[in-house]
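Trying the structure run again after the queue cleared.
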Amino acid sequence: MMEQVYSVSQVNFYIKDLFEQNRLLGRISIRGEVSGCKYHSSGHIYFTLKDAGGQLACVMFAGNRAAGLFFRLQDGQSVTVSGSISVYERDGKYQLYAKRITQEGTGVLYQQFLEQKKRLEAAGYFAREAKKPIPAYPKTIGIVTADTGAAIQDIRNIAGRRNPYVQLILCPARVQGIGAAASVAAGIKRLDQMGLDVLIVGRGGGSIEDLWAFNEEAVARADSGDFCRRS
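Done. Tokens:
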């Protein structure tokens, strides 16, 4: 007897039907922190709801915004999202379809960011009079980023088009995960000692969690570093 073989679409449809028959998933409220929030040109809002143990993809369609959202949704907010969980058949992924979003307060990471920013402001790190002007035509540019990421390729391509004679000096750094902040700070300090015209410190896009290394106090204070290479 031959085993029944199903198409991907059939399986996704079947799983979606299971979700939609579940009473709990059909009407549910979930609390978490907003991350990766994007307002699409269509009017839909795509975001991720996170807590310490996991994450859940969410979407609020444009038609639900007028009656279900009364503030500007942003990364770092702690919210309660009410709606239903179902499967998006095309991608085979489940997500929360939001009908109402209420704000609970500021999320933990975002609150940490604000508190740290306040401390650094008090220490004079953002004082206008301490800022140096950016030269219009830099001859040497230091870069602190991952040596294999898209960011360094973009910088090389744009610099090559605009000024092929500019010298780029890369200090490779971890830009996410354990040790990333120390690695970025090391690159800043090392390049700063070389007296270059401009420093570029960054990475590709991401959520507040992905970019968190760049918010660490160690980066603002720029610890010592190790090596660089010319690009």
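The domain at 8-108 is CATH 2.40.50.140 (OB fold (Dihydrolipoamide Acetyltransferase, E2P)). Worth checking whether this holds up in the mutant runs.
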